[in-house]
């Protein structure tokens, strides 16, 4: 009987299947890498909380068989902050999209990174709002065609790894869904790191973004990632802007800095010590 | 282990309303506060920042009120009693996630020290202009519980009551205070810790495999597992079934869920609603008021009695669910109702709805001070001529 089970059976919520993602979408690869990282590390699944916002990848919290929560649009990081501070024993992972995390949720992202809240954020960057049919967002490349840039995109996109590094994240990496071993390795590293970590995953959206931008299939998009990707660990994130010709990937930041939770616990201990001394 | 600070400051104090609110929250078991500075609720945050570390709790100042409310729900789902405090402009941002708290049944408390609006309005002046927003601010059909304190003692008591109601019904509860109640100083008596009634959410009585996070008991309230307790459940703001799974295409699921969430409050309204009647037994004219304006009303009613006018006061302690039965009973006995509010007509609509044939006279007040007892008395007199 057990031969029939998927190797990640216990990591996935079977009653949520089939999933809603399109053929060629990268979200399944991200889910796969995430649960593989959890499995490899042997983390107690009862102590993991998977949080997602709104968008295609937002459903990932339902598919993962941990405690999980699907927030309002953009608020996943703020919700996760409350979860982690109220129960520091929990591993709190936010997995969401570029629009959710960086347009409507951008303020929460930079402040959580600045505080160094001990949460892990994984962003599926598919360059557009897929769920609503392909509108431009904060990472849409210049000149790209979307349903709301019918004459080409005239907004400059965010360079997410630069934004995360400048905001204070202690670990910043970028991979594409072609780089599953490196991505899994980065998720494992982030899960073991104290503080705010950020992993950007360049993810194909062939049904919507690709269709409008001359990459009609998942294979077309993966071919772009293959041709354009260049691994450069520890390179300057400011110079890692994504262009049609070049996607710099790798680990950009890996530093140590006390997390908000640690500083909070130290402060609380001091306050309580003083009270015992009657000061 | 370091000895923790005292959670309940038993004794007699001279306190500011905002501080009493914070002390009520801590006495009720609140150990998480996420907020954003705003006049006239800032002193609640300041007190929490000082006191929560003493009792082993967490204070965090978020980047805005959207984030504050989201963090409060997150902490509640981690099993910690949580609150935030704000005023009108911040409350406008919080209503987004008050809807989420209602939909995912997260117990939590939101204090709104009301000031003059709309928009930035009069930050340091009082108002009662967010009464309808508290009820209808978030989109979709929902029910809210809202309590209106009229003194410093009462903001202490009602903040405890707000936590108890939120834990009992797994729902967000709003304390609708105002700038005057928040900023004034009055005597407060804080009882012994064991004399304070503290309610905690129902926990599941079944093993994880059998737990359905949104399957209600007879009181329509589902027991609540929290993150990290081994139940591994899923909660979403999408329409969901009793197992918590999204049901976005099912009319039946939508009807069943929204109806239960609303009925959880509506059908328990008798247990939730509190009002206070003064000299209503033989009253011919009744004043209906709440919060700070009820104090002017009480003074005016007493003066009216001295002048031989049979006036009484119905003070609404609970604003939502609206005390329809209590107002209706009063309406049947009197021949006029006078409604006082520091706004341009909000709860008066509800009073008119249930008063039926009894004439309802509205006395609005916009600006920093509540009605003067003399002007209320004059309005009472006019109902007699």
List the SSEs and their pairings:
The complex is a heterodimer of chains A (279) and B (385).
Chain A: H1 27-41, E1 48-52, H2 60-63, E2 67-70, H3 76-86, E3 91-97, H4 98-104, H5 106-115, E4 120-125, H6 160-167, E5 171-176, H7 180-192, E6 197-202, H8 206-212, H9 218-228, E7 229-231, E8 247-254, H10 260-277
Parallel strand pairs in A: 1-2, 1-3, 3-4, 4-6, 5-6, 7-8
Antiparallel strand pairs in A: 5-8
Helix pairs in contact in A: 1-7, 4-5, 5-6
Chain B: E1 11-16, H1 17-27, E2 32-35, H2 42-54, E3 58-61, H3 65-77, E4 82-86, H4 88-103, E5 108-116, E6 122-126, H5 131-136, E7 145-147, H6 152-169, E8 172-178, H7 179-183, E9 185-190, E10 234-236, H8 251-266, H9 269-272, E11 275-278, E12 285-289, H10 293-306, E13 311-316, E14 318-320, H11 324-333, E15 336-341, H12 347-355, E16 360-364, H13 373-384
Parallel strand pairs in B: 2-3, 2-4, 4-5, 5-8, 7-8, 12-13, 12-15, 15-16
Antiparallel strand pairs in B: 1-9, 5-6, 7-14, 11-13
Could you explain the architecture of this structure?
The complex is a heterodimer of chains A (279) and B (385). With 279 residues, chain A is of the alpha/beta class. Chain A is built from 10 helices and 8 strands. Chain A has helices at residues 27-41, 60-63, 76-86, 98-104, 106-115, 160-167, 180-192, 206-212, 218-228, 260-277, and strands at residues 48-52, 67-70, 91-97, 120-125, 171-176, 197-202, 229-231, 247-254. In chain A, strands 2-1-3-4-6-5-8-7 form an 8-stranded mixed β-sheet, sandwiched between helices. In chain A, helix 7 (180-192) links the parallel strand 5 and strand 6 (197-202). By secondary structure, chain B is of the alpha/beta class. Chain B has 2 domains: 11-195, Thiamin diphosphate (ThDP)-binding fold, Pyr/PP domains (Rossmann fold, 3-Layer(aba) Sandwich); 275-384, Rossmann fold (3-Layer(aba) Sandwich). Chain B has 13 helices and 16 strands. In chain B, strands 2, 3, 4, 5, 6, 7, 8 and 14 form an 8-stranded mixed β-sheet that branches. A 5-stranded mixed β-sheet of chain B has the order 11-13-12-15-16, with helices on both faces. In chain B, strands 1-9 form a two-stranded antiparallel sheet. In chain B, strand 7 (145-147), helix 6 and strand 8 (172-178) form a beta-alpha-beta unit. The radius of gyration of chain B is 21 Å and the shape is globular. In chain B, 56% of the residues are buried.
């Amino acid at each position: 009987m057990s031969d029939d089970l998927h190797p990640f059976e216990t990591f996935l919520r079977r009653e949520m299947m089939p999933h809603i993602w399109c053929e060629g979408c990268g979200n399944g690869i991200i889910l796969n890498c995430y649960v593989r990282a959890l499995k490899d590390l042997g983390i107690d699944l009862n102590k993991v909380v998977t949080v997602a916002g709104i968008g295609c990848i937002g459903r990932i919290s339902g598919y993962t068989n941990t405690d999980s929560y699907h927030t309002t649009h953009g608020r996943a990081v703020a919700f996760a902050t409350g979860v982690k501070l109220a129960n520091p024993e929990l591993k709190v992972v936010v997995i969401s999209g570029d629009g959710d995390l960086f347009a409507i949720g951008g303020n929460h992202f930079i402040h959580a990174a600045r505080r160094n809240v001990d949460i892990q954020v994984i962003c599926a960057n598919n360059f557009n709002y897929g769920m609503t049919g392909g509108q431009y967002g904060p990472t849409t490349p210049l000149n790209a065609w979307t349903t709301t840039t019918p004459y080409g995109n005239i907004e400059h996109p965010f360079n997410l790894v630069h934004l995360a590094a400048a905001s204070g994240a202690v670990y910043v990496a970028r991979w594409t869904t072609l780089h599953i071993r490196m991505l899994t390795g980065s998720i494992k590293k982030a899960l073991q790191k104290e503080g705010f970590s950020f992993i950007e995953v360049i993810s194909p959206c062939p049904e919507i973004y690709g269709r409008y931008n001359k990459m009609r299939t998942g294979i077309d998009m993966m071919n772009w990632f293959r041709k354009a990707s260049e691994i450069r660990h520890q390179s300057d994130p400011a110079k890692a802007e994504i262009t049609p010709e070049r996607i710099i990937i790798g680990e950009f930041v890996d530093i140590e800095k006390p997390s908000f939770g640690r500083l909070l616990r130290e402060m609380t201990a001091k306050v309580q010590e003083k009270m015992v001394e009657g000061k | 282990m370091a000895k923790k600070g005292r959670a309940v400051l038993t004794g007699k104090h001279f306190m500011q309303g905002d501080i009493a609110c914070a002390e009520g929250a801590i006495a009720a078991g609140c150990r998480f506060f996420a907020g954003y500075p705003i006049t006239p609720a800032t002193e609640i945050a300041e007190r929490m920042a000082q006191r929560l570390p003493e009792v082993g709790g967490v204070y965090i100042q978020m980047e805005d009120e959207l984030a504050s409310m989201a963090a409060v729900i997150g902490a509640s789902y981690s099993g910690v009693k949580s609150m935030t405090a704000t005023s009108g402009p911040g409350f406008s941002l919080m209503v987004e996630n008050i809807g989420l708290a209602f939909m995912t049944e997260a117990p939590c408390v939101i204090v709104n020290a009301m000031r003059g609006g709309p928009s930035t309005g009069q930050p340091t002046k009082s108002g009662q202009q967010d009464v309808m927003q508290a009820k209808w601010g978030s989109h979709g059909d929902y029910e809210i519980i809202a309590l209106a304190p009229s003194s410093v003692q009462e903001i202490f008591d009602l903040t405890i009551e707000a936590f108890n109601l939120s834990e009992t019904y797994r729902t967000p509860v709003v304390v609708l205070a105002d700038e005057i109640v928040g900023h004034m100083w009055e005597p407060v008596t804080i009882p012994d810790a064991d004399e304070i009634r503290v309610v905690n959410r129902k926990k599941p009585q079944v093993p994880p495999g059998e737990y359905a996070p949104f399957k209600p008991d007879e009181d329509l309230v589902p027991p609540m597992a929290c993150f990290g307790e081994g139940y591994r459940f899923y909660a979403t703001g999408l329409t969901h079934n009793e197992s918590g799974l999204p049901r976005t295409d099912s009319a039946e699921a939508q009807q069943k869920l929204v109806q239960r969430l609303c009925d959880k409050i509506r059908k328990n309204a008798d247990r939730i609603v509190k009002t206070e009647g003064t000299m209503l037994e033989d009253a011919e004219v009744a004043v209906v008021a709440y919060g700070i304006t009820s104090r002017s009303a009480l003074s005016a009613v007493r003066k009216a009695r001295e002048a031989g006018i049979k006036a009484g006061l119905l003070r609404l302690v609970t604003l939502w669910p609206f005390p329809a039965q209590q107002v209706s009973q009063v309406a049947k006995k009197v021949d006029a109702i006078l409604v006082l509010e520091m706004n341009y007509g909000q709860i008066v609509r509800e009073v008119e709805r249930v008063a039926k044939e009894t004439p309802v006279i509205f006395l609005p007040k916009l600006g920093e001070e509540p009605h003067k007892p003399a002007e209320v008395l004059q309005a009472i007199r006019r109902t007699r001529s």
